[in-house]
UniProtKB/TrEMBL annotation:
<dbReference type="GO" id="GO:0015031">
    <property type="term" value="P:protein transport"/>
</dbReference>
<dbReference type="GO" id="GO:0000124">
    <property type="term" value="C:SAGA complex"/>
</dbReference>
<keyword id="KW-0813">Transport</keyword>
<comment type="similarity">
    <text>Belongs to the ENY2 family.</text>
</comment>
<dbReference type="InterPro" id="IPR038212">
    <property type="entry name" value="TF_EnY2_sf"/>
</dbReference>
<dbReference type="GO" id="GO:0006368">
    <property type="term" value="P:transcription elongation by RNA polymerase II"/>
</dbReference>
<keyword id="KW-0805">Transcription regulation</keyword>
<dbReference type="GO" id="GO:0005654">
    <property type="term" value="C:nucleoplasm"/>
</dbReference>
<dbReference type="Pfam" id="PF10163">
    <property type="entry name" value="EnY2"/>
</dbReference>
<keyword id="KW-0156">Chromatin regulator</keyword>
<dbReference type="GO" id="GO:0006406">
    <property type="term" value="P:mRNA export from nucleus"/>
</dbReference>
<keyword id="KW-0653">Protein transport</keyword>
<comment type="function">
    <text>Involved in mRNA export coupled transcription activation by association with both the TREX-2 and the SAGA complexes. The transcription regulatory histone acetylation (HAT) complex SAGA is a multiprotein complex that activates transcription by remodeling chromatin and mediating histone acetylation and deubiquitination. Within the SAGA complex, participates to a subcomplex that specifically deubiquitinates histones. The SAGA complex is recruited to specific gene promoters by activators, where it is required for transcription.</text>
</comment>
<dbReference type="GO" id="GO:0070390">
    <property type="term" value="C:transcription export complex 2"/>
</dbReference>
<dbReference type="GO" id="GO:0071819">
    <property type="term" value="C:DUBm complex"/>
</dbReference>
<comment type="subunit">
    <text>Component of the nuclear pore complex (NPC)-associated TREX-2 complex (transcription and export complex 2). Component of the SAGA transcription coactivator-HAT complex. Within the SAGA complex, participates to a subcomplex of SAGA called the DUB module (deubiquitination module).</text>
</comment>
<dbReference type="InterPro" id="IPR018783">
    <property type="entry name" value="TF_ENY2"/>
</dbReference>
Length: 84
């Protein structure tokens, strides 16, 4: 039987805030805004839906998260579970 790990909501919120901060500091948010603008410009605003935009941007968004941010967040999660 596989053990299910959960993070308390307070810790989850701290991790989300850390992620938001690191992504902003790294310029990721600006990169994503540029990707979004390019998609809308290429297709025309009348041909873009929110759902379609999210679907197209999600793989690129994940790809562009800096490795340092991924490592830091993973380390924080590991520490949390080691201390639990």
């Amino acid at each position: 039987m596989q053990e299910k790990f959960t993070i308390e909501s307070a810790e989850e919120e701290r991790l989300k805030e850390l992620l938001r901060t690191r992504l902003s500091e790294s310029g990721w948010k600006e990169e994503m805004k540029a990707v979004c603008r390019d998609i809308i410009r290429d297709r025309g605003v009348e041909n873009v839906t929110i759902e379609g935009l999210v679907k197209e941007m999600t793989p690129k968004a994940r790809e562009l998260v800096p490795d340092s941010v991924k490592r830091e967040l993973l380390q924080k999660i590991k520490i949390h579970f080691e201390e639990s």
